[in-house]
Amino acid sequence: MKNVTLKKIVYFILFILFTLWIERINFIWLGFNATPTRQIFNIAFILMVASLLLVIPNPEVQFWFEVGLLSFQILISALNINLIKTNGELFFWDMLALFEEGRQAAQVEELTLKFLTGYIFVMLFFIAIRFGLLYLLKIINKTYIPKNISKLKNLVISFVAFAVVLFSGIIINSVSYNKLIKSVENATQAEILLSDANLYQTFYQPELALKTFGSYTYYIKGLSYYFGTETGSEALLTMIDQYLSSGVPETNEFTGISEGNNVIVMLLESFEFFAIHEDLTPNLYKLFYQDGLLLTHYYGKTKTDMAEGLSIMGSYPATGSIYTGFSQNVYPQSLPNMIRNNTDISLIKSYHNNEGSFFNRTVAHPRFGFDELIDVTQMPGVKQTKFWVNSDYEMLLDKVEDMIPGDNTPFFTYITTFVMHGGYQRRAAFQEYYDHFDEIGFYPEDEAFDKAMRTYIAAAMDLDRAIGLLFERLEETGHLDDTTIFFFGDHNAYYSNLSYIMSGIKKEYVTLIEQYHFPAVIYDTKMKAKANQLGIEVIDKFTTAADVTPTILNLLGIEYNPLEYVGYDVFSPVETVLISKLGGIFNHLFYSTDGIETWSNVETTTEEELAKFHESVLSTMLRTQFTQLIYQVNYYSLDRYRDDPSPSS
Question: 278, exposed or middle or buried, with CB in 10 Å at 0-12, 13-18, 19+?
């Protein structure tokens, strides 16, 4: 048998060089630095993955596996470039469950493909070099290499090479990580939380983690977060015990003001301020600007599942998805479970007019504490459109009597709307709205933006009719004054660039905070009366979806441990910041990518405000880190939690 080991090693080196080249191109296209800040970690993970190539007996098979890996790397790059372009996020493993949304997005959003020319050149060059090396190796084999080496010897050499490369990667990674740990040995808590060591351990900022440690580190190490629950050491569990034990229940003027109320939470898909129109969406206008208590500084930089999860849990895993991971976890601290265990409310359901398999809601929502998720397959009155996005008005028309029962059964209803989801191409179901727009001259259908705006506002009018049905049912059943309702937008209307055009902000200007500013309002007549008594017209503190659960618990008078949540009650004097999984740390005054360097969009800010921002960053990071640990070790399932329960149990 001819010597194949040299060929395998040459192919291996070729793969290492080209995967680094592709990474460089990828980073440049994404607008990052040309290489990861801590490239050594990326090299370590590349070696660990590439070592597996050396155990493939046939070098030609090895080569085509390398082609496959490089192609997959290019595919991830293509996904990231288009995701960044579309909604500012990066691909992670939990997105594998979102094939349908990706397919729909690809149909309505123009994909960025021009960069593929560069990658095609790289791959052709890779293959061309391979054939050149084959010719060169034939000459070397004839001249310098013995013509026959035993199969066993080749096999032994291959496994030795595999072991050397694999353990080299492991050692490089371990040594590099130990250096990171040593760099913060004498650091303050603030320095530790903002360090690369903490970033490597938590990936709390995905984009920053990718920039710092590279694609291989981000995606290979990230697999452990995708699969969810891990076993915690005794020291780790003790640390969580001590952290939670220091939580003290808080009260204010609004604590228990709505005790005994029913509850409705409604997530408004892609809902922006320009969807609220006095004439076209009168129910929304009345709700947000007259009857409700407006949260003037409500912000979000999340996907729908994150916003939904934050509002149900008061937190969200810093890494991984609560919908597709953590399948064994129990959640006594969730809003549905807290309401079930501390009130007379017995009917606790969620509703969404898409198929429940999307975001794995059919499985996840009962885990979160809901009796069940009612999806579009259980809504015979909802016509499923060819476009995939369904009517909110039809959902309420079909299910409002179940959402708000007429027999005085206490209820908690969670509703995730759908109709305002993009894309915003013309929809046949909206013809009556288009005809009305023609009559009043609203956005004449001339430009692509005008067409998209007409569909967006038509969708808002559909939602408006749904809101009208909701309040009609509340009045009909006598629950208008004994129901607490929290309405909030999840993210911007990024399809067709509507949000960016309307705000005048280019999407690449990520530090301009106003593009993350959305409507949110609380309707509660008891709360509103108290607010009027105290002279409170709006809630003007910084708020996010994570504040929904603590706020409702406080209004209902349910005692809870504030350290189990990242968010705060909106009536609390304490403010959080938003640490977005899509990148960025911010409140309504300051934006940061790493918690250290900051930008402000406000003309005048004070040193005191900046210091308060940095203080809130550290507090929120600490809460995020501990809630992440709680998710990872399934803390609430452990005997130690049941033996020494927190207020949420």
Answer: exposed
Rounded to an integer, what distance in angstroms lies between the CA atom of residue 69 and that of residue 269?
37
348 vs 323: CA distance, rounded Å: 19
SS (H, E, C) 573-641: CCCCCEECCCCCEECCCEEECCCCCEEECCCCCCHHHHHHHHHHHHHHHHHHHHHHHHHHHCHHHCHHH
Q: What are the tens digits of pLDDT across the range 357-370?
A: 888 999 999 999 99
Q: pLDDT > 70: what percent of the chain?
A: 89
In a domain, 19, yes or no: yes
**Other Cβ atoms within 10 Å of 99 Cβ, number:** 10
109 falls in which pLDDT band (50, 70, 90)? low
Asked if residue 605 lies in contact with residue 590, where contact means CB atoms within 8 angstroms, the answer is: yes
State both tokens at 17.
């060089």
| Sign of the torsion formed by the C-alpha atoms of 200, 204, 209 and 215 | positive
Q: How many CB atoms lie within 10 A of CB 304?
A: 21
Question: Residue 615 maps to which CATH number?
Answer: 3.40.720.10
Q: Tell me: do 579 and 474 sit in the same domain.
A: yes
Are the C-beta atoms of 313 and 566 separated by less than 8 Å? no
Is the same domain home to 197 and 255?
no
Domain with 142, as residue range(s), is 5-226
Output DSSP code: residue 98.
Answer: G
Distances (CA, A) of 340 to 262, 333, 411: 12, 11, 10
Q: What share of the chain is helix, strand, coil (3-state, %, to 5)?
A: 55, 10, 35
* Paired residues of 411 in beta bridges: 347
Do 268 and 200 fall within a single domain? no
The β-bridge partners of 374 are: 351
In the structure encoding, which two tokens stand for residue 413, read together? Answer: 């209803």
Q: Same domain for 221 and 346?
A: no
**Cβ contact 545:316 at 8 Å:** no
Q: Which two tokens stand for residue 209?
A: 């983690």
What's 325's DSSP letter? S
Domain tally, the chain: 2
Residue 344 included in any domain: yes
* C-alpha atoms less than 13 angstroms from C-alpha of 472 in its C-beta half-sphere: 12
Helix, strand or coil, per DSSP, at residue 487:
strand
Distance CA 23, CA 303 (A): 26
The tokens of 264 are what?
A: 């409705």
CA dihedral 352, 355, 357, 361 (to 10 degrees): 0
CA distance linking residue 246 with residue 248, whole number of Å: 6
Size (the chain), residues? 649
Helix (H) or strand (E) holding 316: none
Q: What is the mean pLDDT of residues 132-136?
A: 68
H or E, element range at 268: strand 262-268
Residues whose CB is less than 8 angstroms from the CB of residue 260 and which lie 6 or more positions away in sequence, other chains included = 343, 344, 482, 556
Question: What six digits make up the tokens of 239?
Answer: 């640390």
Q: Give the pLDDT confidence of 37-96 residue by residue, as tens digits.
A: 999 999 999 999 999 998 888 888 888 898 899 989 988 888 888 777 766 677 777 766
Closest CA to 277 of 504, 517, 463: 463
pTM for the full predicted model: 0.87
